[in-house]
Amino acid sequence: MKSIYLAGGCFWGVQAYFDLIEGIVNTRVGYCQGDIENPTYEQVCSGKTNHAEAILLEYDENQITLEKVLEKYFKIINPYSLNKQGNDIGTQYRVGIYWENKDDSLIIQEFLNEKQSKSDQKIVVENQQVRNFFDAEEYHQSYLEKNPLGYCHIDLSLAYQED
């Protein structure tokens, strides 16, 4: 089992999307890259903690590669939008790929370089070692499963499209 952390705007939709993809074993929503321990949703939304809304994604590398996870991720984000995804605006909605394993950082950088080489716009997706990841409150976990009519800026049908 391997892990990667992805920030792509509101974490509800990112989690719901990846929960539909074969090879994804587990997801948890939370906050990472911030300056305080165990922040609340309200603290994160204040913009004063520097946390990003993110998901911890655990995947079976025998079923899906990190590169494939990143391709799926790029289907649902605007990689050129700084601190904004969909209708969500603020530093907590920035885009980022956060890793535990240094080898993953090289794969991620190659992937981002490849994407950047095909675009005139600057890609603003962070590529950093994960720090200060804390699970979000329980009511945020699998939010769209619990609240099917809840807000989501992501077209979940993209999970079923071939790359």
UniProtKB/TrEMBL annotation:
GO terms for cellular component: cytoplasm. It catalyses: L-methionyl-[protein] + [thioredoxin]-disulfide + H2O = L-methionyl-(S)-S-oxide-[protein] + [thioredoxin]-dithiol; [thioredoxin]-disulfide + L-methionine + H2O = L-methionine (S)-S-oxide + [thioredoxin]-dithiol. GO terms for molecular function: L-methionine:thioredoxin-disulfide S-oxidoreductase activity; peptide-methionine (S)-S-oxide reductase activity. GO terms for biological process: cellular response to oxidative stress. The keyword Oxidoreductase applies. Keywords: Oxidoreductase. The keyword Oxidoreductase applies. Gene3D superfamilies: Peptide methionine sulphoxide reductase MsrA. Its EC number is 1.8.4.11. Belongs to the MsrA Met sulfoxide reductase family. This is Peptide methionine sulfoxide reductase MsrA. It comes from Spiroplasma diminutum CUAS-1. The gene is msrAB.
